[in-house]
Amino acid sequence: MVFKNIKIAGALLAVLASAVSAHAQINLPSAEFEHRPLETPSSSRPFASPGVFDYDAQVFAPFEFTNDEEKDPNTGFFLTFDKTYTSVSRSGSEGTNSSAQSSGNHYLWGTRFEGGWINDSDDGWLLGYQNSEGVFFTNGQDVNVANPALVENRFATFEINRVFRQQLSRGGYFEPYIGAQYLNFNDKTIQDLPATVNLVNGANRFRQEVDNNAFGIHAGARFNKRSGRWRFTTDGAIAATYNQQSFFATDIFTSAAATTVNETNASEQSFVPVLDLQFEAAYNISRDISLRAGVQALWAFEGVARANTLPDSLNPNSTLGPGGPGGGLNSQDYIAAGFIFGIEWKR
């Protein structure tokens, strides 16, 4: 009788242990993160829709094809970061034949960011920002040159676009976009003429700053084609912008007796058409991360104000130049072309 009671009690304990184990396995968190709706409708979050915040964060997951031909384009958020090495046309004065006038181009280092979001309906938004700046010398840059002029250039762009994507029957996909663009072209010059150079009674510091702020409509398209882990992209756009030009020049003459400041200001407006081209190649090192490199070029056809880089003794914007201050603004085109290399996430 005792054995019979022990058998019954053991069987009940085994059944209870099995039920507890099964319940624990059902509620054990899985290794894969996925979107699960909240249990109570009152605490739901309408903005946390599937496909936006259910990313599994496995950025280095192996690269895999979803079909036999090519990888499907990504949806959701994406981000790119690039370093740029850009050749820009030097500032100068149109119509000047002086051998002291700067010409040619020089290189600027910079950075570029691009980010956005594409939904499952193949449309979304794209934001881009690029900034490059650097310096060069005119009128000599050797230590034996008494008064070289330092010229600082800055080139920056910002754009926001509405993007639409369409897969093509012969492979690849096409992304037309339209939006707004802002461009900034800035020149600064500084030249010191000490008392030992042509000035007996004192020293002169000549400075200029020319700023262009252009706003306008921006439209273009990208063509993307994949081949295994590689993606090749060609991007072309045009913009029609309204440019606000501003010019400032000053001579600061210092002597034992006093300091004299002579300033000149000017402003103007212009229409600046812009052509923007880019070609890039990206290589997937994982499912979400790619390395990228390419070339880009931007050409502002006309209407960009530039600084006059003649030495102060020849510069019409300086009190030491022929005729005194009065040169003011001069408009030219602007060409920036160079290389890009960086990394991208889910582009």
Largest β-sheet summary: 10 strands, antiparallel, barrel
Strand fraction:
over 45%
Estimated structural class: mainly beta
* Number of DSSP helical runs: 1
**What global shape is seen?**
elongated
Helices and strands, in order, run as HEEEEEEEEEEE
Word description of this protein:
The chain is mostly beta strands. Helix content is 7%, strand content 56%. The chain is built from one helix and eleven strands, in the order αβββββββββββ. The chain has one helix spanning 2-26; strands spanning 76-89, 105-118, 123-138, 149-164, 166-167, 173-193, 202-227, 230-255, 259-284, 289-305, 331-345. A ten-stranded antiparallel beta barrel has the order 1-2-3-4-6-7-8-9-10-11. The longest helix has 25 residues, at 2-26.
List the helices and strands and how they pair.
Layout: H1 2-26, E1 76-89, E2 105-118, E3 123-138, E4 149-164, E5 166-167, E6 173-193, E7 202-227, E8 230-255, E9 259-284, E10 289-305, E11 331-345
